[in-house]
Amino acid sequence: MQKKQELYAGKAKTVYETDDPNIYLLEFRNDTSAFDGEKVRQLTDKGKVNNLFNAHIMQALEVAGIATHFIKLIDDKTSAVKCLDMIPVECVLRNYAAGGLSKRLGIEEGQVLSPPIFEFFLKDDALHDPMICDSHIMTFGWASEDEVRQMKELTCKVNDVLQPLFAEGGLQLVDFKLEFGRCDGNIVLGDEFTPDGCRIWDAKTQEKFDKDRFRRDLGDVVEHYRLAAERLGLVI
Ligand code: TMP
Ligand code: ASP
Questions:
Q1: Which of 28, 127, 175, 226 has the CA that lies 20 to 30 A from 198?
Q2: Top-level class of domain 3-82
Q3: pTM over 0.85
Q4: If you take atom 9 of ligand 2, which residue's CA is the nearest one?
């Protein structure tokens, strides 16, 4: 597979075309951004750690029967993925209160959310990713009613697979964000699953192993991403 021209550079990943029109290369960069790109730093080895972390999770989801865009690892920072027609919404699932939910509703961080909370956000940096609901998605044609239902179901299924996987490593999966796309008439998980897009806490001490270390200047960001990967059985 040959790497061709750059298609799109996001805040932390770059997408390249290949000689196969159905396959893209996803390069995980060291750039780390928070607050809609207001705070940006280069963190040594973050691209590599996130690429390997993502591959591990995507493969676990595939084994559990969830279709993902992941094809294979190409090198330390690059993975081959299926090309999807992305739906411009972010699906957030929360098992414990934290971050935006705590701020918005005044709920104490760490409160168990049972049943878990599901939220949609519009993927639009200029508008600061506003929260939206099913009705907005259907009225503005971002996805159909059936696609909305599938995104919710798949997000819950991902939670059912990953919560026990993280628990085995003594970790709480606090919340996470997913993005989906269309491929051959199916809804497929795209983007990434890394500590950049989820919250992971130690189950006993609530120590943070995710991007809140960067957002809140807690230090040792990539070291904690690597430690979380190790708890899931990965050696990086
Ligand atoms: P929030 O608490 O800031 O709303 O974030 C909920 C989850 O979604 C958290 O795990 C971080 C993730 N997330 C992203 O991956 N990208 C984003 O742009 C935002 C706002 C959140
Ligand atoms: N991912 C977003 C950004 O890069 C928001 C965040 O993670 O805080 O700005």
A1: 127
A2: alpha beta
A3: yes
A4: 36
